[in-house]
Amino acid sequence: MYESLMKVLSGYGLLSGFAIIGLTMWVSYWISDTFTKGRLHGSAIAILLGLLLSYIGGAFTGGTKGLVDIPLFAGVGLLGGAMLRDFAIVATGFGVSVEELKRAGFAGVLALFVGVGASFVAGVGVAMAFGYTDAVSLTTIGTGAVTYIVGPVTGAAIGASSEVMALSIAAGLVKAILVMVATPFIAPYIGLNNPRSAVIFGGLMGTSSGVAGGLAATDPKLVPYGCLTAAFYTALGCLLGPSLLYFLMRGLFG
Amino acid sequence: MIIYGVAFLAFCTLAGIFIGELLGKMIGVPANVGGVGIAMMLLIFLGSYLHKRGILDATSEKGVAFWSAIYIPIVVAMAAQQNVYGALSGGPMAILAGTAAVVVAFALVPVLSRIGQKKPEESATAPLTKAPR
Question: With bands split at pLDDT 50, 70 and 90, how would you rate the model's confidence at A118?
């Protein structure tokens, strides 16, 4: 019986993904209505639940793909994989107002550069507080705070140790997860309720999954604006990390 | 037909990500340069052009609307496969570095929102939705 069930669930992976996520959404909206009277949006609770399940999955299997490492839930991986994620993010662009985008264009580009710079400085600051002094490690950890892709890309390019690379990936993961969790709570305080601030938010945060999740939990209408700028962030980080940022650090720390 | 909308969306996504890959190669960066953003631009501009020409009708647009509506469940599925365990077992320094970056970026959102806005017009900052979500 168990074998037959597993055969169906894994053979029809995408469908089991739809069923599992649909159930999660239903539970989340029920929690949202019953316990928070709708004040905490159902999608925010669903994302929190997803992250919690992913922690349990990771602790249970020791793998790196959260819940998806448990064979029963492998279908969720198809649904939430890069292909369908990008497909759906692009689809949200259909309702975008071109006027709003034009108005936020310059601020968005500025936000990208400020965002990479500020995250890098924050990461380097923490690394220094923990006793790192060499330019290579500082740059790698700093770029890890940019995104978990920029960190290892930069680290590999400038020859960081694997221990430092792992730290930089972890820092980037913490950032992505924290953005998903915290955005709906912080949004009212930073005026994140209009397309313009969403474009700036996407440029400042940059972590695509964090921005996608955080804005979805705040107001789905803002998603395309934030994701549009965030799409350029990791590439900008990969461009600046091993070059300008590393040279700056080498100049400062030798 | 709905498939026209889905196919149009697929074309825009593939084209955008392909251009992003090419840009990455050209600049020499091992990452996709704005693929999703470029795809979105294609969708917006090609979409309005085709709509004006009457090629993409309301039924076809449903093919795009469906995927736009399924976005949140997909993000939930994405959240369920983040390496949360790995992030938290990275130790206090990794957690602090990631947190510091987020706090700084949050604080900068209102600062940058003010820049380039000639005068504080009400319409520019009016919320999209009246009801808090």
Answer: very high
**Cross-chain residue pair B78–A213, CB shorter than 8 Å:** yes
For residues B12 and B61, state if they share a domain: yes
Q: How many domains does chain B have?
A: 2
Return the top range by mean pLDDT from A99-103, A107-111, B13-17, B91-95.
B13-17
What is the domain extent for residue B87?
83-116
Summary mean pLDDT of chain B: 82
B54: closest CA of chain A, how far (Å): 16
Boundary-marking domain end, from A80, A107, A139: A80
d(CA A201, CA B38): 18
**CA angle, corner A172, sides to A171 and A178, nearest 5?**
90
A-facing residues of B in 56-75 (CB < 8 A) are 61, 64-68, 70-75
* pLDDT tens track for B104-121: 999 988 888 887 665 444
Residue A172 located in a structural domain: yes
What's the predicted TM-score (pTM) here? 0.80
Q: What is the pLDDT of residue A157?
A: 81
Task: Measure in Å the smallest separation between the Cα of B30 and chain A Cα atoms.
Answer: 7
> Phi/psi of residue B117, each to 5°?
-95, 110
* Chain segment A69-112, per-residue pLDDT in tens: 888 888 888 988 889 988 988 888 887 777 777 778 888 889 99
A114 and A73 in a common domain: no
Q: What is the DSSP string of A21-55?
A: HHHHHHHHHHHHHHHSTTSS-HHHHHHHHHHHHHH
- Looking at the structure, do residues B54 and B111 belong to the same domain, yes or no? no
A189 shares its domain with A158: yes
- Dump pLDDT digits (tens) for A21-43: 999 999 998 998 888 877 777 88
Domain containing residue A123: 96-253
What's the Cα-to-Cα distance from A51 to each of A212, A228, B113, rounded to whole Å? 14, 24, 30
Residues B75 and B90 in one domain: no
Q: How far is CA B48 from the centre of its chain?
A: 18
Contact A228 B40 (CB under 8 A): yes
Residue A175 contacts B where some CB pair is shorter than 8 Å: yes
